[in-house]
């Protein structure tokens, strides 16, 4: 996805469309026949099983409508933040934290990914499993692989990955559900990400990102680790532009071009304990009170690998922070009540 300040594809909450009857995939089409031949030759896929699976796939018009005009609108940060940083979502995150506290702590200790970051991501992606998409992944990927020319190459690659995945995991092709684009389960992994980053956190021989919260949490953490998350490092800092600032505010980017030192020398004022050579980037967003400035550090740009959006990364980070504050405040209040009752 090409980054931009205003136009963002929202996570799974806005990728939820009703499924409608579709047209069966015609496996005798030359392009589909070629795909089948490639799977057999490249991956030794059983031809009869593959043909049987694809015969069950349907090309759906509502998937094509969704991908051509995705459920998005032009948003500024003030709008985007109001969608994801809500009282209801914070409370749902608190409940999720309490219900999964032991696993969250264990996985955080093992990986170095903070609990609030894992909780923030899952909250933004699927509202803690409430909204994961109801399309059959087989239909979504087959439709887009063969009937959506603008991105057919990408989706044929993801269909290839999906077919390998179900063979590896012993899954039924028609059971997996997700978004109209084929993103699956509670962390909304595309098949290639599932194969690369999903983990079996419960040692039961399966990587279940639909119903097993331990696997979901572990997979999200593994994604961050594999993309370079640094244990205990800062993510982002609010900033202001001092009198020294002379240039135009740069366009937001997903690749940091500056350092803590270079930004400070340019007149960007922010607080950090990170060393001067730490890669950093000035970010500009339109908030409720007008223009906001932030400095993103290495871990901030790791978040953007999950979804290539500055606003997404900031929302996931802030949601996690808000939930963390609320959880710890609740514990403090409960402890105070106990002490008061004992006195």
Give an account of the 3D structure.
This protein has helices spanning 30-43, 47-55, 61-68, 77-84, 87-99, 101-111, 115-126, 137-147, 152-169, 191-197, 213-226, 260-265, 298-303, 310-342; strands at 23-24, 58-59, 135-136, 177-178, 236-241, 258-259, 268-270, 279-287, 290-296. The chain is an alpha+beta fold and 343 residues long. Among the domains are: 12-72 and 130-226, Helicase, Ruva Protein, domain 3; 236-296, no CATH class. The strands form 3 sheets. Strands 6-8-9-5-7 form a 5-stranded antiparallel sheet. A two-stranded antiparallel sheet has the order 1-2. 40% of the residues are buried. Residues 1-9 and 12-20 have low confidence and may be disordered.
Write the layout of secondary structure elements.
Elements: E1 23-24, H1 30-43, H2 47-55, E2 58-59, H3 61-68, H4 77-84, H5 87-99, H6 101-111, H7 115-126, E3 135-136, H8 137-147, H9 152-169, E4 177-178, H10 191-197, H11 213-226, E5 236-241, E6 258-259, H12 260-265, E7 268-270, E8 279-287, E9 290-296, H13 298-303, H14 310-342
Antiparallel strand pairs: 1-2, 3-4, 5-7, 5-9, 6-8, 8-9
Helix pairs in contact: 3-8, 4-14, 5-7, 5-14, 6-11, 7-14, 8-9, 9-10
Distance between the termini: 59 Å
CATH architecture assignment name of the domain at 12-72 and 130-226: Orthogonal Bundle
* Mean pLDDT figure: 90
Q: How many alpha or pi helices?
A: 14
Rg over alpha carbons? 22 Å
